Amino acid sequence: MFELHGFAGLIHFPTLYIQDAIRLGQGRFRHIDKGEVILYQGEIASRAYWVVQGLLRSYSLDSAGKIHVFMFAPEGWIVSDVQSFTFLEPSNLFIDAMEPTLIIELNQSYLSVQSLNEGDVTHAINKLLRRISILQQRVIMLMSASAAERYEHFLETYPDLVNRVPLKWIASYLGITPEALSTIRGRIKDK
User: Fold this and answer.
1) Of the four listed, 43, 61, 160, 176, which is most buried by Cβ atoms within 10 Å?
2) What is the number of structural domains in the chain?
3) Predicted TM-score (pTM) of this structure
């Protein structure tokens, strides 16, 4: 179980905004068990998920049943299928818990820009631009960087996840096989 005393200190995106969402019934705490899916491919993403404690993963499933990890969302990150959430289209992603996780579910209607004050908008835009920057770097790296460079970038982006996420999912995120990741990790260790 999670200790909720002083939970507001864990939330880095306007705390008052999150507290207002909960108070107004537009957000709620939810405990997610390890392996539990909170968004299925094909559903409309009507919520965003703020990770208070734990770890979420978003991924797609190809026609052969292979999982392709899109991103990880550790503490302080917010995740949803942005395209589905924004345009109310069927989701391309699944979202599940990699470990027991405490989230705050935020309703789509509450997260509209109209409900934010000027300071919240600035903060939200800065966080969004940071996330877009990370995703842009990832796409460029998938197109041009070596597997070792992509792994080093993963370590910079998610420094605490290497001991929390099974290597097969890190390999999936990097677009390589677990065996290739093992080789890369061995080379880094030998340096």
Assistant:
1) 176
2) 1
3) 0.74
